[in-house]
Design a protein that fits this description.
The complex is a heterodimer of chains A (about 280) and B (about 325).
Chain A lengths: L2 H5 L1 H31 L4 H6 L13 H9 L2 H32 L5 H9 L10 H10 L6 H24 L4 H9 L4 H8 L4 H17 L2 H6 L8 H11 L4 H34 L2
Chain B lengths: L1 H9 L4 H28 L2 E3 L5 E3 L3 H8 L3 H34 L7 H13 L2 H11 L6 H8 L14 H16 L1 H12 L3 H9 L4 H12 L1 H15 L4 H7 L12 H10 E2 L2 E2 L2 H34 L1
Helix pairs in contact in B: 2-15, 3-4, 4-8, 4-9, 4-12, 5-9, 6-13, 10-11, 12-15, 14-15
Classes of the chains: A mainly alpha (about 280), B mainly alpha (about 325).
């Protein structure tokens, strides 16, 4: 790790080799995505004849996007996905921070049992209870509504959220809370006061939950399968299945479904990566 | 702390604790714990001639493992799922470790950019990934064919990789590996970065070379992460569904050669084509999945985690 080492020729070769491997893998990771977006702006002929070329004046075409615009209601799917994702994240935020505050702050009988109970769901996939979840939703009259999805995603997101947030809540300095108590603040007020202090952790948990909710196919397919409730993922699945021979439409709808997620990823990648490591490395 | 404890003592009934816990406990119990338990209960019931569900004990499990139609499907699904898992463990996690060890070197410039770009497929939905790859592998478009010709393997060029019984499952496993490799990469990277420099310096002073440092010093220190990645891969794989459903449809074709537990569960629960759905048998398959996942988690917790903790300290 010294300067002398850095100048050794063997090091340079090693470095070049490392960059070569990383570049090659980056190309492999991005190539399919780029290829789809690139070809979504080309005529059908050009898609097959010159798949790697950038679209030019002759091959430029947005026919795929026009078909998708007419046949699939992607704006509606987006609104549904946003409603489900934001709704679930909001509930995870409220219920998750409240429960982790209770677990981190108060010593009461059953505290560790409660922590363990709420952590059970980290390892057990909620999908295994699908048969009963569907029946529960039928009896609650929320089947085929976005509410059902919001509640299920909240339940499945809470265990890890509480686990991570409890650890962060425990690090909030005691003096602060005790000073507030001396001033006569209620417990609810103190909880509300410390939330801004763990804002980074909350952001991490939210972003970390956002992606699997947005991308899920299983529960929309089972709990909210009618067209008015299509999320982007389910809408893309159905639409793509029907238009299997219309290459332009498929390329366009794939691009439409991908680009917003990639933009969100660019904005939030730091929180996402932090969440990933906070969730797994205890 | 004193104040909190004293406050608690004065009030025998800590009402605010209940208020804080209630929302999470209610939603989580209602939509996660109750359905999991109820689903296990349902696996012990079956509809009788009047269509009412009656308690039948373990009969569903017996039927599942002996019935001439269900048994081969169950065996197939478990076998394919094991193949799916093994390919992930070997390919995904080795590539993840390789990329992470390259990215953990402080001499590599642009580490953050590589890391973010390689992680991109992981944030996309499995549905999109499935369609993207079925287009690229489609002999109609010929993208994969041309690439194979270019790298000197023309004899493989025209193969419908997802349409042959022999290649469909490995191909899908590799597509899934391609998508998820970012997760082990990130976790390994976090573990590698947290190794103190002094340890590595000391090993180098003692004359250890690059690979020696990796296997003797770094790898033992990231063993806990290996375990976490292993169990995450296991749970994720035995719970997978989206990719197979998207690319191979509900029958997990060709000829059920890509059928895994998730698709088998869905098909049995909802039925397909002429065969009506069977919720209690679906719950039984979910019960089998539960047992498999539970066995994996327990093995990890008591077999691996304890032993590794002993090595560490």
């Amino acid at each position: 790790m010294t300067f002398v080492q850095r100048l050794r020729p063997a090091r340079t070769i090693q470095l070049l080799a490392a960059h070569a491997v990383l570049l090659a893998y980056t190309a492999l990771a991005l190539f399919p995505v780029v290829l789809i977006v690139l070809n979504s702006f080309k005529t059908r002929r050009a898609v097959f004849k010159t798949p790697y070329a950038l679209p030019n004046k002759e091959t430029w075409s947005t026919i795929g996007y026009e078909t998708v615009w007419k046949r699939a209601h992607f704006p509606d799917y987006f609104l549904n996905s946003i409603e489900v994702t934001v709704g679930a994240l909001l509930l995870i935020f409220i219920a998750g921070t409240m429960a982790s505050w209770a677990l981190a702050e108060y010593r009461f009988r059953g505290n560790s049992f409660m922590g363990l109970y709420l952590a059970l769901g980290i390892m057990i996939p909620i999908r295994l209870g699908t048969v009963s979840i569907l029946r529960l939703c039928v009896s609650l009259h929320i089947v085929d509504t976005l509410t059902a999805l919001i509640l299920v995603y909240t339940a499945s997101g809470l265990p890890l959220a509480i686990f991570i947030l409890t650890n962060f809540m425990k690090q909030v300095p005691r003096d602060l809370k005790d000073a507030a108590r001396v001033d006569g603040a209620s417990e609810y007020r103190i909880y509300w006061m410390i939330l801004p202090l763990i804002r980074p952790a909350i952001g991490t948990v939210m972003v970390f939950n956002m992606i699997p909710i947005w991308n899920d196919l299983w529960f929309p397919l089972i709990l909210a399968p009618s067209e008015r409730n299509f999320t982007v993922t389910l809408g893309a699945q159905i639409f793509l299945g029907q238009f299997i021979s219309d290459w332009n439409a498929i390329l366009a709808s794939l691009s439409l479904a991908m680009i917003p997620v990639i933009i969100l990823y660019i904005i939030f990648s730091r929180q996402l990566i932090r969440g990933l490591t906070a969730g797994a490395v205890k | 702390m004193d104040l909190a404890v004293r406050g608690k003592d004065r009030r025998p009934f800590p009402f605010h604790i209940i208020v804080f816990l209630a929302p999470a406990v209610i939603v989580y119990t209602m939509f996660m714990i109750y359905p999991l338990i109820d689903s296990l209960r349902l696996s012990l019931y079956a509809p009788n001639d009047q269509g009412q569900e009656v308690f039948v004990g373990l009969q569903n499990y017996h039927t599942l493992t002996t019935d001439e139609y269900l048994k081969p499907r169950l065996e197939g699904a478990i076998k394919h799922n094991v193949v799916f898992f093994v390919i992930h463990m070997v390919v995904q996690n080795s590539i993840g470790l390789l990329l992470a060890s390259l990215l953990s070197s402080p001499f590599i410039r642009g580490r953050g950019i590589y890391r973010s770009l390689i992680f991109t497929p992981t944030v996309l939905s499995v549905v999109l990934i499935g369609f993207i790859w079925s287009m690229i592998l489609s002999p109609l478009w010929g993208i994969s064919g041309n690439i194979l010709i270019d790298i000197g393997l023309p004899q493989y060029a025209k193969r419908p990789w997802l349409g042959l019984e022999s290649t469909a499952l490995p191909t899908l496993s590799l597509i899934s590996v391609w998508q998820w490799v970012g997760i082990p990469m990130m976790l390994f990277l976090a573990a590698l970065i947290s190794i103190p420099d002094e340890l590595i310096e000391a090993a180098r002073v003692d004359g250890a070379t690059g690979l020696g440092v990796f296997w003797r010093i770094k790898f033992p220190l990231i063993l806990p992460t290996v375990g976490i990645i292993g169990i995450l891969t296991f749970v994720g794989n035995f719970n997978a569904f989206d990719l197979i459903y998207t690319t191979q449809k509900v029958n997990a074709g060709p000829n059920f050669s890509t059928d895994i537990m998730g698709t088998f569960f869905y098909r049995t629960f909802f039925g397909m084509q002429l065969q009506p759905g069977n919720p209690t048998m679906g719950a039984t398959i979910a019960g089998v999945m539960f047992l498999i996942i539970l066995a994996g988690v327990l093995l990890y917790m008591f077999g691996w985690q304890r032993r590794v903790a002993q090595i560490e300290f």
